[in-house]
Design a protein that fits this description.
Elements lengths: L3 E6 L5 H9 L10 E6 L15 E6 L2 E5 L8 E4 L3 E6 L1
Antiparallel strand pairs: 1-2, 2-6, 3-4, 4-5
Length: 89
């Protein structure tokens, strides 16, 4: 099975930033601008504008919620069982 590597923006503020900091055992101020995730299934950018970048919106019991806070784009939950890893970039 092939893993797919993605780079996601870390939100500048909000719950997603605090949740990522806790998961990565970092202070929120020490988070990088981006994180790297590896998935077992492809993520779609359908519905995103050319200048939109996916970012972490929330970490939930079901998985990682991604989307964008700029403009309109679909949100997607990446189930935890589909994540091979999540790390600082």
């Amino acid at each position: 099975m092939q893993e797919l590597l993605y780079s996601l923006k870390v939100p500048p503020t909000g719950a997603g930033r605090a949740e990522l900091a806790a998961l990565l055992d970092l202070e929120p101020k020490d988070l990088p601008e981006r994180i790297r995730i590896s998935t077992l299934s492809p993520l779609s950018n359908r519905g995103y504008t050319a200048d939109a970048e996916a970012e972490v919106l929330r970490l939930m019991p079901e998985g990682l919620l991604i989307g964008t806070t700029v403009g309109k784009a679909p949100r997607m939950i990446v189930p935890w069982q589909n994540l091979a890893y999540l790390s600082e970039e």
